[in-house]
């Protein structure tokens, strides 16, 4: 499916020109999304990346699915988009770090923190995967600028991801699309066998 150029780092497995596409909608503060993300890393990436069985046949795109009933969700997604802008090759490692530390951004732990404090905490997490120079740029991208309601430098990318989800009527995280259609059978509980069976049945190239 379509992906604007600034979000190319969200292709986390497979070649960009692969004919089949898995669109995987994940929220950084959703436990089921975290489970799916770890499966993407351990199962799908080896299958889709260079040398894998489906190399050149299937690509996986992480679609950022903000769940606004969790107060910190927007801030975590903004931070991932900032990393994608500064260090594209670190988008997926940073995403995994977010998922592995997601409890820090759950509703109760985040309830006593201001948005600025949460962004500072996210910058500390980003420092685990990007350079000190990158962290400085990360903080700059997430500074509120312009008018009193003008957002930050990655707001337009965030809007794109949200509009993409809305127009495709995506509500639940995780949700997976295969070649543009919801594959309702795919579950966060899937492991190597289920994914291998699914791809064997679906890949036609």
Automatic annotation (TrEMBL):
SUPFAM superfamilies, sorted: Thioredoxin-like (SSF52833)
Pfam families reported in the protein's UniProt record: Thioredoxin_4
Domain Thioredoxin-like fold, first and last residues per copy: 11-107
Name this protein carries in UniProt: Thioredoxin-like fold domain-containing protein
Annotated organism of origin: Hypsizygus marmoreus (White beech mushroom)
């Amino acid at each position: 499916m379509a992906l604007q150029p600034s979000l190319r780092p969200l292709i986390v497995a497979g070649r960009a020109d692969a004919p089949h596409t898995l669109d995987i909608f994940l929220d950084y503060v959703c436990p089921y999304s975290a489970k799916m993300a770890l499966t993407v890393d351990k199962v799908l990436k080896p299958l889709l990346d260079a040398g894998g069985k489906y190399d050149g046949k299937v690509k996986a795109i992480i679609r950022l699915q903000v769940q606004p009933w969790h107060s910190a969700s927007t801030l975590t997604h903004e931070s991932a988009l900032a990393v994608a802008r500064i260090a594209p090759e670190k988008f997926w490692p940073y995403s995994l770090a977010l998922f592995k530390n997601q409890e820090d951004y759950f509703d109760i732990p985040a309830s006593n923190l201001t948005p600025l404090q949460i962004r500072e905490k996210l910058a500390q997490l980003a420092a685990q995967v990007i350079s000190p120079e990158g962290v400085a740029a990360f903080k700059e991208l997430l500074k509120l600028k312009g008018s009193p309601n003008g957002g930050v430098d990655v707001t337009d990318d965030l809007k794109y991801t949200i509009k993409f989800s809305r127009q495709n009527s995506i509500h639940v995280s995780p949700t997976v699309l295969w070649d543009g259609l919801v594959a309702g059978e795919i579950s966060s509980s899937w492991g190597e066998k289920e994914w291998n069976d699914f791809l064997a049945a679906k890949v036609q190239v």
